[in-house]
Structure formats: C-alpha cells, structure tokens
C-alpha cells in the first residue's frame, strides 16, 4: 500500500463516519456539521484522484453554499425535541455491523480491481484543460447559463419585494 491508498482509506473512513454521524444524530445542527465533515472528506478524495478542480467545486458549492442554505432552513423552522424518538441500541449495533460488512466487501473488491494503464495524462493541468474546453467549445451554453441565473436572481428579488409589499398592507 502506498501513500495515496492510505490517504484514500483515511478520507473514505472520515466520509463514512461523517455520514453515519449525520444519520444517527438527533440534533439538526450536529447533522449539518457532520455533513460538512463528509463533504470535505469527499473533496479530499477528489484531490487524491488528481481532480483538483472538482475538489474545489466540492468545497465551494457543497461545503459552502449548500450547507449555508441548509443552516438557514434549519434555523427558520421549528423542531420539537420532546416528540423525537431515541434509536434503540440493538438497531445502532446492527447498523454498525452492516457498515462493517459493507466496508469489508468493498475493500476486497477494490483491492482486486485493476485498471489498464494508458498514455492519457488526465491529472496534468486538468483545471486548465477544463477552462479551455469550457471557454472554447462550450462558450454559448456557458453564457446562456449565466443569463439564466441572472434572470432567476432578478425574479427572486421581484418576488421578495412583492411579498414585502403584500405583508405591509399594500401601501407603498
């Protein structure tokens, strides 16, 4: 086992641990923190696979934006802790055993996996290659997406202003 494999297994265990903590936690804020932990571990896995651009997008979009949106949603809703049921210990041990069996099966299959080595160097300047491809062959769809997002932003502002006027009694 080389360093990349060790880093992959550590990051994979961190991602799995974050997912398990998210599922088993009863506090919603702890769930979101566990989700951030999982997203960052997945970004680390992307780095070990030489996909730095995808890792950056993972950190910016998922660990940043999506998590902030989830936190706002959590903070703006009510949560009743008295009616939440506790998970039985037997179910927790069964879930842990199932995760362990799944890990062992996947480890055995991944260890025996063999990809043919080609002359393709995907990890060399992959962010530069994505940028060149995006801004040369796909420039029109890229610009259309930016216009679509701008229209959606303007529409959201207009709808928010309209709701604000309706709540104020219709007076301007």
From TrEMBL:
Its EC number is 7.1.1.-. The chain crosses the membrane at residues 6-23, 28-47, 53-72, 93-110, 138-160. It is found in: Cell membrane. It is a multi-pass membrane protein. The keyword NAD applies. It catalyses: a quinone + NADH + 5 H(+)(in) = a quinol + NAD(+) + 4 H(+)(out). One of its GO terms (molecular function) is NADH dehydrogenase (ubiquinone) activity. It is an enzyme of class 7 (translocase). Keywords: Cell membrane, Membrane, NAD, Quinone, Transmembrane, Transmembrane helix, Ubiquinone. The keyword ATP-binding does not apply. SUPFAM superfamilies: MFS general substrate transporter. GO terms for cellular component: plasma membrane. Belongs to the complex I subunit 6 family. NDH-1 shuttles electrons from NADH, via FMN and iron-sulfur (Fe-S) centers, to quinones in the respiratory chain. Couples the redox reaction to proton translocation (for every two electrons transferred, four hydrogen ions are translocated across the cytoplasmic membrane), and thus conserves the redox energy in a proton gradient. NCBIfam families: PRK06638.2-3 (NF005168). This is NADH-quinone oxidoreductase subunit J. It comes from Fictibacillus aquaticus.
């Amino acid at each position: 086992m080389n360093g990349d494999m060790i880093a992959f297994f550590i990051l994979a265990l961190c991602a799995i641990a974050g997912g398990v903590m998210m599922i088993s936690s009863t506090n919603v804020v702890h769930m979101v923190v566990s989700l951030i932990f999982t997203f960052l571990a997945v970004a680390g896995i992307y780095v070990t696979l030489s996909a730095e651009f995808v890792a950056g997008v993972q950190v910016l979009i998922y660990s940043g934006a999506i998590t902030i949106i989830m936190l706002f949603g959590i903070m703006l809703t009510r949560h009743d802790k008295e009616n939440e049921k506790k998970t039985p210990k037997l179910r927790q041990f069964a879930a842990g055993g199932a995760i362990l069996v799944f890990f062992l099966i996947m480890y055995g299959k991944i260890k025996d996996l063999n990809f043919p080595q080609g002359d393709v160097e995907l990890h060399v300047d992959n962010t530069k290659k994505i940028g060149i491809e995006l801004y040369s062959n796909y420039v029109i769809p890229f610009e259309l997406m930016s216009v679509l997002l701008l229209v959606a932003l303007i529409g959201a502002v207009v709808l928010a202003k309209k709701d604000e006027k309706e709540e104020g009694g219709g007076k301007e």
